[in-house]
Amino acid sequence: MDISDIINHLGEDRRDYYGAVAPPVMRTSNFCFASVEDMRSNINREFEVPFYSRGNNPTVSILRKKMAALEKTEDALITASGCAAISTAVFGNLAAGDHAICVTNCYSWTYTLFHDILKKFGVNVSFIDGTRIEHFKNAITPKTRLIMLESPTSFMMELQDLKAVAALAKQHEITTIIDNSYATPLYQNPAELGIDIVVHSASKYLGGHSDLIAGVICGTEKMIRKLFSQEYLAFGGIITPDNAWLILRGLRTLPVRMKQISETTQKIVCFLEDHPKIDKVLWPFAKSYPKYELARQQMKGAGGLFSFTLKTKEMEKVDMFCNKLRRFLLACSWGGYESLVFPGSVLYSSMNNNKAIPFNLIRMYAGLEEPAVLIQDIEQALEYV
């Protein structure tokens, strides 16, 4: 199906809700049945029919169909957050005594899950630099059951060769999971490259308006059924029908938002690459990017998240630059209409120095403002460096 058909029509039988153009919000916890026999026949069919909204809700089901189609997978689950999506998928594929591999410089709560929480359940984890396939080969053990990917990573913009990792994992019967929040289904479809499970923080581009928290898990019907019947129902990390509806609304404008954001980012990156106070720029579609060719092979485009390092050894100048910005809000996350900045220096204090991220590295997100306005803002702030 065409992307516009998926976003605007798939799963929406408007005859079921009086011809309304927008899908309804089924704000209900329970669903009733006409007879005991009817209830009995459906109590063990929560995956297929609405029984209790912790498992299946009509508004959420519409979103499931759209996300699966966009990611070119067979099915999907929608969760209360990106963290819920990751943890549900991870716990559903690991057991005590197993070994897992996770890329370094991943999302901070992914790191916490793999570094701290999985230890409590007897799972051993190896963190590796995922930029080279040899590192994956060297990390695999007879007990390796899972590889966690994030490409690009959200601060250092590091890529993994998804096709190569997927092929290696299949040789060893290892499940692969990727956080695909950066690229969205429009710009990268990991399942087509052989990745087993694709997760998203829907709080980013999919929602698109900085007004919800949600997550997505995409995979085969067999995998989704497995996760649904165990971790999804037991953990209860479900999305509300209201937030599912907000994502459905956000998807309507996803293609036009991503197009403008990508074009704006390209202009900002070009400006930064030529500026004498900038050391290097990290954006997958920048020609100076170390793995530019790989990015072009496995991604159709790059979004509004990019990083760069300032030519300074003084943290005060990094802080000053960010404090002088007028159009970029100091905040985490990304994917909404507003432009954001997250300096690496935030992670440094007298008690904590994050050596993985240099203090002079600055992550920016280009929103929907005019490119010239954003470039002018960066330019005036650079005068203080």
Question: What does it look like?
Answer:
The protein has 385 residues and is α/β, with parallel strands linked by helices. The protein folds into 2 domains: 3-252, Aspartate Aminotransferase, domain 2 (3-Layer(aba) Sandwich); 254-382, Aspartate Aminotransferase, domain 1 (Alpha-Beta Complex), CATH 3.90.1150.10. The protein has 14 helices and 12 strands. Helix 3 (58-70) packs parallel to helix 10.
Q: Structural class, from secondary structure content?
A: alpha/beta
Largest sheet: 7 strands, mixed
The pLDDT mean sits at 95
| Number of domains as seen in the coordinates | 2
Poorly predicted runs are none
* First-to-last CA distance: 50 Å
Shape: globular
CATH superfamily of the largest domain: Type I PLP-dependent aspartate aminotransferase-like (Major domain)
**CATH top-level class of the largest domain:** Alpha Beta
Helix content: 25-40%
By DSSP, the count of extended strands is: 12
Task: Indicate the radius of gyration in whole angstroms.
Answer: 22 Å
Number of helices: 14
Which series of helices and strands comes N to C? HHHEHEHEHEHEHEEHHHEHEHEEEH
